Structures are given as C-alpha cells and as structure tokens.
Amino acid sequence: MFLDRIRIGSRIFAGFFVLVVLLVGLSALSSTYLLGFGGHADRIAKSTNLVGLANDYALKLERLSNQVLLFAQTVDIQDREGIATIRAAAEQSGATLVDALRDAGDGDRADALESLTADYIATLEPLVLRAENLTAASDTMLLGANQLGQSAAKLEEFIAKRDPVMAEKYGDKLGAFNLAAIVNSLQYPIVRTPEALEAARAKTSELTDLQEEIKSAFDGLKRNEKKLFSYAVRDNDLLKQGANQLEGSIGGFRQSMDDFKTAVRGVQAITQNIRQEAMANQTALVDAAHADSTNSALTNIIVAAIGVLIALTLAFGITMSILRPLKRVNGDMTRLSENDTDIDLVDINRRDEFGAMARTVSIFRENALKIETMAEERITLQRIEEEKRRSSLGAMANTIEGETTGLVQSVSHQVTRMREAVTEVAAAAERVTTQTETATGAAEQSQSHATAIGDAAVRLTNAIGSIANRVERQRGIAQNAVGSTQQSAKAVDDLREVATSIEQ
Q: Does the pTM exceed 0.70?
C-alpha cells in the first residue's frame, strides 16, 4: 500500500494538515458569506438611512408650512423667528438628503430635489412678506377705524352744537353709518370673504356720501370746521385703503401660498417617491439577504458535512493503517515470547516504523532459532557423552565383575585347598594318634602344612584387600561419573535459562 511507505508521524501530520486546511477553507467560506451579509447590511442601512432622511425632510417641510400659516394668522415676531429656525433645519435636512442621494448614485433625483428645494425656498420669502402685508393692511384698517371713531365723535359733537335741527336729522344716522363702516371694515380681516369686502366697501361708501351730504347742508363753514369733515373723510378713506390693501395682500398671500404649496407638494412628492423606492429597495435587499443567508447556510452545512466525512475517512484510514500492523507486530512478539518461532512477518518489507519493528522481531526470531539449535545440539552432544559414559561404565562394571569373579573363584580355590589341607591335617592327626612312631615326621609335615596354610591365609588377605581397593576405585569412578552427569544436567539447565532470557 501507499501508506506503508509513509512514516506514522508523517501520516498523522498529513491528517492534521488536511483537517486544518478543511477548517481554514470552511472559515474562509463563512467569512466570504459574512462579507456578503455585511454588504447587504450596509446597503440596507443606507436604504434605511435614506428613508429616515426623507421622512425627516418631509416632516420639517410640514412643520415649516404650519409655522408660516401660524405666522400669517398671528404675525408674531416669535413665530417669525420660528420660521427662520425651522427653515434652517429644513434646508440642512434637504442638503443631507441630497448628499445621501448623490452618495447612493442617484444624481438625477438629487438634482431634481435640489431644484425643487430651491423653488420652495424661493416661494417662502414672498409668502412671509405677503403675510406681513396682511398685518400691515389690518393695522391700517385698525388705525382708520380708531381715528374714524374719534373724528366721527368730534363731528357729531360739532353738528350738535352748530345746528340742533341738523343734529337731530343726521346725528343718529351718522353714528350708525360710522359704526357700520367700522364694524364691516374690521370684520373683513377676520372673515376675508368677498361678501365681507363688499359690505365694508358699501358701508364706507355710504358713510362718505352721508359725510358729503352733511357737509353740503352747512353753509359758511370755517376752516377749522371744514377740517372736522376732512378728518372724518380721511379716516373713512383710510378704512377704504386698508380694505383695498388687505384685499390685495390676501390675493397676493393666496397666490404666494399656492406657489408655496405647489413647491412643497413637489418636494413632498419627490421625498415620498424617494421614501417608497428606498423602502421597496430595502424590502428587496432584506429578501435577497434572507435568500442568500438560506443558501449560504445550506452550502455551509453541505461543505461542513463533506469536511466531516473527509476528516472521518482520513482519521479511520490513518487509524487502521496504524492499528492493524501494530496488532500484527504485537501478536508476533507475544508468540515469540512464548518460544513460538513459527510466525509470519508480513510487515517486514514496510518502509515505516512497523517495518523496522518487524525486522527487529525477525532478528529476535533468528536469534531464538539459533539458540534453540544450539541447545538441541548441546543436548545431543550431552546425550552422546552420557551414552559413551554409560558404555564405559558398563564395560568397567563388566571388568570389575570379571575381576571380582576371578578373585572369588581364586578365594574359593584357596578355601578349597585350605579345606583339603585341614582335612589332611585331621587325617595326619589321626595318623599321629595312631602312629606315634611317626610323630616327628608327621610333626614336620604338619609344620609344613601349617606354613602352607599361613601362606594361603596371607594370600587370601592380600586378595581380599586387592578386591576392596578395586571396588573402592570403581566406586570413585562411578561417583565421578555421577558428578559429571549432574554437571552436564546443570549446564543444560543454564543453557535453557540463557535461551529463555534471550527470548524474553
């Protein structure tokens, strides 16, 4: 196999390297998806910001319109300052919205919004001036009404003093006409309807006609007296002038207000369009981000599953490439420790650590085989030597037995001879007893026989000592043979112990 050529450490390192590469690749893929999500989030944030800016600008425009209407009604200096403050805030909000549109690449709508904003700002100042003109016209009418009231009272007082008959004729009528002119003139700035304007004009005209009629009824008026009529006419004309100015101011204010509303509607329309498109774009971006997140999650799951499968396969392959040969080498070493040299070293040709271990086990097996062969040869030699010793001991025993048998036979022969000599001595004694005469000859013969018997006894003693010496020598030889046998057995045991220690 290919893995047989790779060292274990290299295999493990390669496995960890592949695992690290898979993890880094998965992290890079996740980072790519996160960057994509970041882009979606950035675009969504920009779209949300654009919606917020459009809403803020529209609200400030609405506040500005309401403030202008409030100023047109109150003509208060604080309301005028409020217009300036809200206008500055609206212009700043519009400029921010225009910049955001340009940053988003929507230059056309930015230019259109900027142009509409300029038109809207251009209509704002005339509208404020027309509102101020309304106030001025109203002030004129108030001034005229105030002065007309004073001049009318003086004129009525003059008529009552100058001519009671004229006073009775025109006094109440003049007072009623003055009051009607003042009331209708002051009612017009409040109602601001054409009917109110016509009524104010009619009453002031009637008052003018009545003043001329009264003036014509008096003859020979002095200069100071004529001034009373002139002041009354002037104040009535001031009411007329105020009404005419108010009419023109109302018309101009309405025109300016229409222009202002048109400009505001244009700005609000484009801001509404911007807001709607931004919200639609935001919804599309959210949907796209959700779809991308779903696809990315599925892709990550699939890639992670493939990575886990590859990692498990790689780990299983590396583990089995280590455990299988390790189990074989362990089994071979166990059998070798049990003096079983009949083992198959299938991993001896591997180029990794298990190959080196198998070759080491092979060396141990060869040494064990050599030791076993040497032990068998030693045992064979010992058996041969023991057989030789047994043979030599048997031959020696036979020799000893033969010699002992010869000695025993010789002793038996000497004993027989001694027995015969004793018999002869007994016979000689009998002959001595019977033949006293031959005593001296018999005594000499008995002496010679006794000497022979003594010699035989000496020889018997020497033979018995020689036999004992030979038996003692044979016993020493046998003991030496037994000692040699014990030494051989001990040497064999030592050899076995050495072989066992080498095998272990």
A: no
